[in-house]
């Protein structure tokens, strides 16, 4: 009887221990990390500049997607200083981030840092930098198409003739690609004359507004300026503000890129900004992250990836309510969510993190 009692006590204790261990295991599965080598990655986002709402929404896209993959992002902002950007890239390598995202910049400033990252085994994916470095995917918007979309509509609205102002700046890969389309536009429409051109990336919106105000004083007669073509939404905002304040409602503005702030201006019937060609900035951030995680997985993504753009005009938008970029797909076909860069294993990772 004593032996039976002892056996019963030991059996009860053993079962209690099994149940406790099972409970601990369940708790660890619920609150612990996802058992996936791609989870828990630390990602550096090295940016040349983070000016304006477009950049803000792009950053949101990056952070959101990395979080969905179970990782975390540190942003290195460089205030449009390429030397500082190169230093930030070196810092990201030295701090041993798992992966590095580059936003803008150029090969002259960043090649040495990218080489260090490759030597350290840290994958790099760049957006709008056109690095042309072996093993580094260059992601971009279809800049030539965006320029063509806005310029062709400008020409149609102007009847193939008129005087225009170009707001553009050299030294940035996307701007240089947009300039190629602008040069073709000039050859195609000889009766559309460029009367002046300007652009400064340091304080783009304020600078554009100030310079546009001066140009409007130089050309005070209505009809002397037909339209403004702005190769960046920050330029478009500044030019549009100057034109609106001057009461020159005959001048139309055509821009590139899109954010919620931009969309509100385009919807405003009193704004001269009537259209823009763009890719959803949040989607750009999402796709950028996916290609980096492909590299982290050990894949070799294609060397150059383009994200296609859509044309957004005031005519396509509702007049009875203000819409955001999150709602824009209801009115503009092709806008919004993209599966570009996604893979089965990334979908599994995202599902595992969401179920954690």
Automatic annotation (TrEMBL):
Pfam families: Peripla_BP_4 (PF13407). Residues 1-25 form the signal peptide. Its main location: other. The keyword Signal applies. The keyword Signal applies. Gene3D superfamilies: 3.40.50.2300. It is found in: Cell envelope. PANTHER family: ABC TRANSPORTER PERIPLASMIC-BINDING PROTEIN YPHF (PTHR30036:SF7), D-XYLOSE-BINDING PERIPLASMIC PROTEIN (PTHR30036). This is Sugar ABC transporter substrate-binding protein.
